[in-house]
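Before surveying the methods themselves, it helps to consider a single example record, giving the amino acid sequence and backbone structure tokens:
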Amino acid sequence: MDTLLKETVNATVNSRYPGMAPEGRKLIEEILIRKELEKGELLFKEGQVCHHIAFVGKGMMRQFYYKNGKDVTEHFSYEGCIIICIESTLKQEPTRLMAEALEPCTVYLLPYDKFMRLTEISWEINMFYRKILEYSLIVSQVKADSWRFETARERYNMLMHTHPEVIKRAPLSHIASYLLMTPETLSRVRAGTL
């Protein structure tokens, strides 16, 4: 019995749709594929078509892309979080994003085609899927608004408040790129001089 699988499904489902019954959770467990990643290993690469949604069971990952030769962190995921490349998964087109293990990770891959079949037979799984998409849209909007309207200090404080695990575990260079700051600016924000 893979206890991490059950814990991961419960944590992930509870983060989006806590009312899902045990039967729906079991249907999801049955189609998940366990994958171990070493630190620095990529779950998916630029140019690849994403056929899975990933649940992080153990470890921390980041989604990133390259812009003008620099890597830019778009998202962090850790235990109980979901990794999805929405555009690639929905359109079945190559992605520009990559997902890298920042620590040794255990992820569970949810095959998108099988998941879609489950949404057709289970109202609860359909609702879970909807909640995944709604959450992703909200996170994207909040992040865009943060970049537009908040100071560097406000962005850092919000990340510290909403995702303290990222502050504790992610390299400062990745945190800085996620917050659209240079490492020097992040150092000044953390020191309270900015």
The CA atoms of residues 36 and 106 lie 5 Å apart. The beta strands are 33-37, 42-44, 52-58, 61-67, 70-77, 82-83, 98-101, 105-111.
